[in-house]
């Protein structure tokens, strides 16, 4: 099925470990986004990429880096994971104003 | 800063009751408005959206929302809820030119059979 694919679906990290969350879309969308979802806080934008080769900070970028590898792929990296980064992470893509979300990555940092 | 407020954090209703979830945003320019639903353990799905035209928009599963520009509101309604509507509902605003979607905090809806 066409859409946004995120890997992995679940991950447990120890404090200080690093990891990369992968996101790929096959809809030829220009824009891609990374959100985190925490109880009572809705979804907060971490980083976004309006087009291939560009990235911008969202509301909560600290502790994260991103790479827009090509038009299809937008990865999110945690260089040194902290318990405060325990969350569900959603990737999304958009051609303009309509967004398609991936199924999420549930990350626990212990 | 632009923000989206959903004033109801948790709503509990019985089946067949009517539903209205509030959403207000703070931005004076042109906006596009969305309601998303997240069923337990699943990702976000689009319920409905408003871009322009008739301020009363109809979405899937019998949901509708009304855009009231003067009140900066986009409330979600359903005349008669079902147990299967139990989910978390998110209002979101896309600000034209900003190329990003800002979400409200979400409203957890529990429908008792």
How would you summarize this macromolecular structure in one to three sentences?
The complex is a heterodimer of chains A (110) and B (113). Chain A has 110 residues and is an all-beta fold. Helices cover 0% and strands 53% of the residues of chain A.
Number of helices of chain B: 0
Largest sheet of chain B: 6 strands, mixed
Order of helices and strands of chain A: EEEEEEEEEEE
Rounded to the nearest angstrom, the radius of gyration of chain B is 13 Å
Q: Largest interface: which pair? A: A-B, 22 and 23 residues
Strand content of chain A: over 45%
Shape of chain A: globular
Name the beta content range of chain B.
over 45%
Q: What structural class should be given to the helix and strand makeup of chain A? A: mainly beta
The overall pLDDT of chain B, averaged over residues, is: 93
Helix content of chain B: under 10%
**Biggest sheet details of chain A:** 7 strands, mixed
Quantity of strands of chain B, as a count: 12
**Radius of gyration computed on alpha carbons of chain A:** 13 Å
Helical stretch count of chain A? Answer: 0
**Uncertain segments of chain B of ≥5 residues (pLDDT<50)?**
none
Structure class of chain B: mainly beta
Report how far apart the termini of chain A are.
Answer: 34 Å
User: Could you list the spans of chain A in which at least 5 consecutive residues all have pLDDT below 50?
Assistant: none
Protein described:
The complex is a heterodimer of chains A (about 110) and B (about 110). With about 110 residues, chain A is mainly β. Helix content of chain A is about 0%, strand content about 55%. Chain A has no helices and 11 strands. Chain A is globular. Chain B is mainly β and about 110 residues long. Chain B contains no helices and 12 strands. In chain B, strands 2, 5, 6, 10, 11 and 12 form a 6-stranded mixed beta sheet that branches. In chain B, a hairpin with a 4-residue loop joins strand 8 and strand 9. The mean pLDDT of chain B is about 95. Chains A and B meet through strand 4, strand 5 and strand 9 of A and strand 6, strand 10 and strand 11 of B.
């Amino acid at each position: 099925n066409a859409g946004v694919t995120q890997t992995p679906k679940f991950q447990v990290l120890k404090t200080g470990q690093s990891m990369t969350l992968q996101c790929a879309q096959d809809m030829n969308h220009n824009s891609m986004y990374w959100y985190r979802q925490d109880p009572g806080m809705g979804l907060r934008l971490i980083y976004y990429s309006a087009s291939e080769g560009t990235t911008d900070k969202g509301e909560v970028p600290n502790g994260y880096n991103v790479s827009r590898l090509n038009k299809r792929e937008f990865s999110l990296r945690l260089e040194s994971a902290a318990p405060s980064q325990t969350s569900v992470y959603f990737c999304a893509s958009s051609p303009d104003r309509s967004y398609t979300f991936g199924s999420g990555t549930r990350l626990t940092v212990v | 800063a632009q923000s989206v407020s959903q004033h109801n954090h948790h709503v509990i209703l019985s089946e067949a009751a009517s539903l209205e979830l509030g959403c207000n945003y703070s931005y004076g320019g042109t906006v596009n408005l969305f309601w998303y639903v997240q069923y337990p353990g699943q990702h976000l799905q689009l319920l409905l959206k408003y871009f322009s035209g008739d301020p009363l928009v109809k979405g899937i599963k019998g949901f509708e929302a009304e855009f009231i520009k003067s009140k900066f509101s986009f409330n979600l309604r359903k005349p008669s809820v079902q147990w299967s509507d139990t989910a978390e509902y998110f209002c979101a605003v896309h600000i034209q030119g900003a190329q990003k979607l800002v979400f409200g905090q979400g409203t957890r809806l529990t429908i008792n059979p």
